[in-house]
Design a protein that fits this description.
Glutaredoxin; alpha+beta; 2 domains
């Protein structure tokens, strides 16, 4: 956990309730923040974290926050963490006092306090992760409240639920962000949902499939906006981050009944091959079908799209003329339209993938599509 991380503050508020329901012991470690170098836009990330933490607080009735702790309160909270027993009650109390500056006395910075946080951060890296609000249990990582549903299911499977009979199945409590697919108010097409994706992002694949299901259910059009992947912009993920993303994506895919069986990353040549065809597929009204076919080739069938014949086969299946697509791409250069897409994402204050935008609602992450769903429902109700 990190005292200056709003998601850690949300998580610490629910840990006592989990400890009451399950026969588990929580061992707490304080770090300063996420491991350096894993966030491409730290400033935007901090702004988003506050907003997203308050969204979580609304879902579960937790205490909201409006700003990060001031430096004096943060230093004091870190010092008290070092001096007091690492119980859940103490952790909740220290987080509360740090975020709302409720200390009677204050401490200055000290080397031992800095050193123990560095030591814990190194421990986090050694065990295979990079973010605060990270829980490790039985060989798996669970990040923040968003992944507590997976942890609950795992604990239920191991029969660690204190109120669970041997042959019963206890429901999970922390799944408020799941899509509901409520009854449609009307069949009218209104506006569109924009999806910012990267072909190298497993979460983009999951978000795309979920967004397509959502759009089909509520009769909303989709606009696919592919971006240049991080590795083509000179940025690279740490090994810990790459491993966690794959493991977590597979777990999320299984929960959402989305096929996911291949983990080979698409090469730069494969990305260029795919993007050279995209503009033509969009012009032909087949952008959604095309991207779905590409995603399935990558994450389900393990097809190497750096090999042109494989891409040509996909085009043939979709009744897209590959040679005509290349000609069309010469006047609709993929580097230009991907730059336009990146600028559009920058303008709504987001930076990674997948991101979704519907009217005035923008969100980051395949596990935040419930926000888009609620915006669609509200829009349809207003229009009916």
């Amino acid at each position: 956990m990190a005292l200056n991380d709003p998601h850690s503050f949300m998580l610490v508020q629910v840990l006592p309730e989990l400890a009451e329901r399950f026969s588990v012991k929580f061992e707490l470690f304080l770090i300063y923040e996420s491991v350096p170098g894993v966030t491409i836009e730290p400033k935007l990330m901090r702004q988003w974290s506050l907003k997203d933490a308050n969204y979580i607080a609304t879902q579960y009735g937790l205490t909201k926050v409006d700003k990060l702790p001031n430096s004096r309160a943060l230093l004091t909270g870190q010092q008290l963490w070092q001096l007091t027993p690492k119980t859940l009650a103490n952790a909740v109390d220290i987080f509360q006092k740090t975020w709302f500056d409720q200390f009677d006395d204050y401490y200055d910075a000290s080397t031992p306090v800095i050193n123990f946080q560095i030591k814990n951060q190194q421990r986090l890296i050694h065990k295979g992760h990079y973010l605060p609000a990270a829980m490790f249990f039985a060989g798996n990582w669970f990040i923040g409240i968003d992944r507590l549903a997976h942890l609950e299911r795992r604990l239920n499977t191991l029969q660690l639920n204190k109120s669970m009979n041997e042959n019963s199945d206890s429901p999970v409590r922390y799944s408020a962000n799941a899509l509901t697919f409520e009854k449609r108010v009307n069949e009218q097409l209104i506006d569109e949902c924009q999806i910012f994706i990267s072909l190298r992002s497993p979460y983009s694949y999951l978000g795309f499939i979920k967004a397509k299901r959502l759009a089909n259910h509520y009769q909303v059009s989709l606009k696919i906006r592919p971006l240049v992947p991080l590795m083509m912009r000179g940025l690279h993920l740490t090994n810990n981050k790459q491993k966690y993303i794959i493991d977590d994506a597979i777990r999320e895919a299984l929960q959402a009944d989305i096929p996911f069986s291949a983990t080979t990353c698409l090469t730069e040549k494969g990305i260029i091959n795919c993007y050279q065809v995209f503009a033509y597929a969009e012009q032909q009204g087949k952008s959604t079908d095309y991207i779905e076919a590409i995603f399935k080739a990558i994450y389900v069938n393990n097809i190497d799209l750096a090999i042109l014949t494989n891409l040509q086969s996909i085009c043939q299946t979709l009744d897209l003329d590959y040679q005509q697509a290349l000609l069309y791409g010469e006047s609709h250069d993929w580097q230009q339209w991907s730059d336009v897409n990146q600028t559009a994402l920058d303008e709504i204050g987001l930076w990674g993938v997948p991101c979704f935008s519907y009217q005035d609602t923008n969100c980051w992450g395949q596990d935040r599509l419930a926000q888009i769903e609620q915006a669609i429902i509200s829009s349809k109700v207003a229009a009916s």
